[in-house]
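Q: Predict the bound structure with zinc ion.
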Amino acid sequence: MKKGFTLVEMIVIVCIIAVLSLLSAPSIIETIRSGNKQVCLDNQKAILSEYYAKSPYTDNKETLFKQIINEYGEICPNGTIIDITAPGHLNCPLHGSASN
Ligand SMILES: [Zn+2]
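A: Predicted complex:
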């Protein structure tokens, strides 16, 4: 009685797994990209809501905005440098702006 798999059967199984991996790779990459974009926009929204909550109580809005951004740490999960045009306006060159 035969036990285990032959070499040809193992090669066929490995080829099937490789083809399935190649077919699913684009959707996995797209899911990661869309997740990173959502995290980036959500971080921007969190910073903006904290800024708009605190800004009526200070005269130096620019310092407050920079302080909130520094406390927040990395905004974009891709490590993109966020453009800060004015207090209350953030823009990620890769993912866009949540303030629009
Ligand atoms: Zn981003």
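A: DSSP finds two helices and two strands in the chain.
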